[in-house]
Design a protein that fits this description.
There is one protein chain. By secondary structure, the protein is an alpha+beta fold. It has one domain. 19% of the residues lie in helices and 33% in strands. The protein is globular, with a radius of gyration of 17 Å. The relative contact order is 0.25. The model has no long low-confidence stretch (mean pLDDT 93).
Length: 231
């Protein structure tokens, strides 16, 4: 199997380039993966989106189109729930984002989640570190593309972010892949921070299986991304 290796302050992870368990219930997909949204984003966006992880995702979309199921969804090992500060004067919602939920690497992050919209780059990047929550979103897709291209990011990577208006319970975080070309889809890394934990599954949804050294003793690492400097 082929993997992308991400090295962060949290751990060294092997991210499978393939998805599995298509159509299984959300809880099962969640339990089968250990990949956080942040780790996948680091791999997917590496080298300005020119890398084996992004290419594998795009090829999956193209091949699944043969069956009328091009757009697909994957679950991360992340959850989100509402915090205690409500909504601020910018319309951002206070949430508790849990990366690597229910694993040894679990970590809670208090984040202001912007209104649903197209993710745009800021001086701090696109996503809050260790989460899949963007710093800023715009309702206007054309302006979002302009902002991306001004930073040297391909406009075709414009992606949408959505969340509930308010959370009534803890929800899963995931991402969909549906290119925006021709006005179709919400983007190649469209984050949904409000996925139903009771979803019974559908043919478009899967997750990346956690690496198991007992079943793959010779993993093929096709790319390495390091996000912090070792002391």
């Amino acid at each position: 199997m082929q993997y992308a290796k991400t090295i962060t302050a949290v751990r060294e992870a092997l991210i499978d380039l393939q998805l599995d368990n298509w159509g299984k219930p959300a809880r099962q997909l969640f339990s089968k993966t250990d990949v956080s949204g942040w780790e996948l984003w680091l791999a997917f966006s590496h080298n300005n989106f020119n890398n084996p992880c992004q290419q594998a995702d795009e090829q999956r979309y193209k091949s699944r189109r043969l069956y009328g199921r091009g757009l697909y969804v994957e679950l991360f090992r992340d959850t989100a729930r509402e915090g205690g500060r409500g909504v601020d004067d910018k319309g951002r919602l206070d949430i508790i984002y849990v990366s690597h939920a229910d694993t040894e690497w679990q970590k809670e992050h208090t984040v202001w989640a912007p209104k649903p919209g197209w993710c745009v780059p800021t001086g701090d990047g696109i996503f809050v570190s260790e989460t899949a929550i963007p710093f800023e979103t715009l309702r206007d897709k054309k302006e979002a593309i302009r902002r991306l291209e001004a930073k040297g990011i391909p406009g075709r990577q414009a992606s949408y972010f959505c969340r509930p208006e308010r959370y009534v319970s803890e929800m899963y975080v995931g991402r969909s892949f549906g290119p925006v070309g021709g006005g179709v889809g919400d983007g190649q890394f469209a984050v949904n921070a409000g996925m139903d934990t009771l979803n019974s599954g559908n043919a478009r949804m899967a997750s990346r299986p956690a690496y198991d050294p007992l079943h793959d003793k010779t993993p093929e690492i096709v790319m390495v991304v390091q996000n912090y400097t070792r002391n």
